[in-house]
Amino acid sequence: MSELLLSPEKENISTADRILDVATVFFARKGYHGTSIRDIAREVNLSVATLYYYIQNKDDLYVKVFKRQYIEESEIIGNILANATEATTRDPAALRDLIYRLIDALIERSVINPDIVRLWTWRWLERPEKTESIEAEYSIPLYQMVEKLLNQAQASGVIRPDISNLDMVSHSFTWLHYGYFGLGHLTFRTQVADLFQPRQVEEFRTFIHTFVDRILRFTDQSQGFNG
Fold first, then answer.
1. Which domains does the chain have, with CATH numbers?
2. Which of 88, 128, 138, 216 qualifies as a cystine partner to 84, CB 3.0-4.6 A?
3. What DSSP designation does 46 have?
């Protein structure tokens, strides 16, 4: 597995960060149950005893991996949403542009590191015991950041008023996003093509823009709420 792990530009990182990098790849590609502490220690070139200097146990390492992903994604989302003002939630064009930028940034993150998608996919399939807090601490807050913006925009009349569960909108992006990068099963064509080909990614990005546009049905669209 060594040739799949760390790129040359990461060779000078700290041991703690290297452990997290390696653990992320193992958990993403083999799952929690398919990964052992011995696997990770061997890949990082440490003894198991030395590895335990940095972590308490396998569950602790697993949670640390998700915590780091949360910090990175929270920074991406937070930096984009920081550009939102009260005026943004009252301006359909400005809100649409902000949401598109958020979508594009998250898609680009998966293009650069598809193991993030694999990591969460395994998480949903396995749900290891003693790690139940991961969703509450490292997933739900990200959705809440986006849903707060959507609720403000809906209250301002910028997006359609008949969506009772805006959280379904943000989650639907995740389902499509992870379906594309994690499984490649959105269409038959993506099963036989390179999902990461720029043209393929651009097609998917355009589809997601259109999907969100139709779901939210911004009030500057000519068809209004009855179209």
1. 1-55 (1.10.10.60), 65-226 (1.10.357)
2. 88
3. -
